[in-house]
Amino acid sequence: MKNVCFVGCGDIARQHAQMLQGRVGLYFYSRTQKSAEDFYQAFKGEGIFFTYVDVINSKEIDAVVLCSPPEAHKGQIVDALAAGKNVLVEKPMVVNHKELQDVAMLASHHKNQFVMVAENYHYKPSLTKLQKIIKSGVIGDVQEIYIKKMFTQGSTGWKEKYGALFEGGVHFVAFCTSLMDRKKPTTIEAQFPSKKNPERTSHLVLHYDQGVKAVIDYSWETPDMLKGVFQHSYIQGTKGRITFESNGLYIISPKGFRICDIKGLSGRAEMMEDFLDCLKNPGKKPEYDVFEAAKDLEIIFDAYKQANRNIVV
Predict the structure, then answer these.
(1) What are the C-alpha distances in Å from 296 to residues 35, 99, 122, 184, 196?
(2) Nearest 5°: CA angle at 117, between 115 and 118?
(3) Residue 264 region, left (φ>0) first, then alpha (ψ -120 to 50), else beta?
(4) pLDDT at res. 205
(5) What is the C-alpha to C-alpha distance for residues 25 and 44, in angstroms, rounded to an integer?
(6) Does the chain have fewer CB atoms within 10 Å around its N or its C terminus?
(7) What is the mean pLDDT of residues 92-102?
(8) Secondary structure (3-state) at 312
(9) Helices 11-20 & 33-42, crossing angle to 10 degrees?
(10) Is residue 148 a contact partner of residue 172, using CB atoms and an 8 Å limit?
(11) Which of 39-48, 72-81, 148-157 has the lowest mean pLDDT?
(12) What percent of the chain is predicted at pLDDT more than 90?
């Protein structure tokens, strides 16, 4: 059985650990030792570590799962790869262009290891269904994509200092890029309506070849009685339209009305299957690796730069 060590023991680490329990040996490290001890007890772990150096130097550990704040990711990825470990890192992977370039370059030199980013929206069942409908040709050629997720969401701890597009909107940027077969946009337009820092509302317009356009509206400060549920997005083609609930609950298309897998809505199960498959099969690369994550982060970094806004305050 392979062994992984969680670095950071918060809410997202708990969700990941629940899916990995019993399938790999679980170890834990946190800056707060009690958190690591609590996870060790809750998930019947194999052990805890007291420093990150101990984690990456351990011969028992095959991979690290980085659930630490984004500003810590680059250094932790660099050290893990140097120690021969595989990496699953929470999104967002890094906090600026320079870090992104450095990590991508380093990953390209470690061909026997992988760096996977935990972007579950790339693995959502609704995305797979939408892709199949598009490929069937029933709506013709895609002309426009519109994605909306506007609600109110508080942020605590380290998340308070990051922009909403960077911390949460990255999910929908990744979703949009996957709908576009992971193509990069030719141009980007970005607006952040409020002068509030860090930003909490964004409007992106992404232009692609053949005149295809994608619009993403994302907000953490827009009142919504249903808290972002039952908001609609769409994909417009030359022959018809697909409308879908933005969280992936259901899809309406020329093929009819489809309810998606409610229990598997998040895509985390599929994401973890990819991680485990790569871990058990040396040389296999994840679907959403550092290079795919770079495509989405470049859009976000360029959006902030264009609008002269800061990602972090």
Answers:
(1) 32, 14, 11, 8, 24
(2) 140
(3) alpha
(4) 99
(5) 9
(6) N
(7) 98
(8) strand
(9) 30
(10) no
(11) 148-157
(12) 95
CA gap 309, 71 in Å, rounded: 18
Question: How far apart (Å, rounded) are the C-alpha atoms in residues 278 and 292?
Answer: 16
Across 216-228, average pLDDT: 96
Identical fold between 3-119+269-288 and 122-266+298-306 = no
Q: List Cα–Cα distances, 182 to 137, 213, 281, 288, in angstroms.
A: 19, 14, 24, 10
Q: CATH fold of 3-119+269-288, please?
A: Rossmann fold (3.40.50)
Of 293, 276, 275, 281, nearest to 112 by C-alpha is 281
List, for residues 173-212, the tens digit of each pLDDT value: 999 999 999 999 999 999 999 988 999 999 999 999 999 9
The token pair that represents 118 in the structure block: 């935990």
Superfamily (CATH H level) for 122-266+298-306: Dihydrodipicolinate Reductase; domain 2 (3.30.360.10)
Q: What DSSP line would sit under 55-108, residue for residue?
A: HHH-TT-SEEEE-S-HHHHHHHHHHHHHTT-EEEEESS--SSHHHHHHHHHHHH
End-to-end CA separation in angstroms for the chain: 42
Instruction: For residue 63, give both structure tokens.
Output: 């991979």
* Mean pLDDT, residues 244-255: 97
Alpha carbon separation from 278 to 198, 238, 274 (Å, rounded): 36, 39, 6
CA 46 to chain centre: 28
Strand order in the sheet with 47-48: 47-48, 25-29, 3-7, 63-66, 86-90, 115-118
Domain extent listing, the chain: 3-119+269-288, 122-266+298-306
Query: For residue 263, what pLDDT is reported?
Result: 80
Q: For the beta carbon of residue 53, count every other beta carbon within 10 angstroms.
A: 11
Cα–Cα distance between 288 and 41 in angstroms, integer?
31
